[in-house]
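---------- Forwarded message ----------

FYI, see the MerR family transcriptional regulator record below. Original note from H. follows.
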Amino acid sequence: MSYSVGQVSALAGVTVRTLHHYDRTGLLSPGERSHAGYRLYGDADLARLQQILFYRELGFSLDETAAILTDPQANALDQLRARHGQLRDQIARLQRLAEVTERAIEVQRTGVELTPEERSEVFGPVTFDLSYATEAQLKWEDSPGHQESMARAAAHSKEDWRQLMGEAAAWRAELLAAFDDGVPGDGDRAMDIAEEHRLHLTRWFTACPPDMHRRIADDFAADPRAFALAVPAPEQRPGLDAYLREAIHANASRRTQSPTTTCEEDR
């Protein structure tokens, strides 16, 4: 039995345009033509189309599908095993994203509800990039420090956030003044400013030892989204992210080498 393009489109749930594309590329060329020159698909063509759609659903490219279907030496089993592994990785990632979403919903339900006006008042120019927050959650989800930080952030009241952001604004003013004055990034003034930032994180989120502070500084220098959490875009200067990184690394080395450093200083 033969089927027209329109009939195959309806049966298989693909567009006529897709079938024409498969024909042009040689992936699926109908075995017959009508007297008027129209494409006609036979049972063998429909069986091949079913295979094509199967591999498409699994995420194989048209070239990969063509290789599997046309090359007798192509090892479809190996291809399927490889795709199976990729799909399992994608499923695991989507499950983590679902968990992140659930946590975000919980934070929204239990956290401080702010009107747009209050949010502007409390956070000012600081913005939170959802894509960065999601990536950070996936990257650090097993870290006790990150878990504590998220829990404490969710528990802050509106007044807590107002005080926190006020401290952050004062700290940024010191940082920008030092940078604009040409203060060396590894000098005492810059290191003291870096130490203020470390203690601020410890005070409001989670204990931030020097090594952790170094990693945070590396994120600032590598990812503009992370740096924008510390210094909003309107206040940034070219090279400021690298300057802050230098100051934090210098301060971390100073504290690591200092014999008087104790845990009590971080409280």
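H. also flagged this: Residues 76-110 form the longest helix (35 residues).
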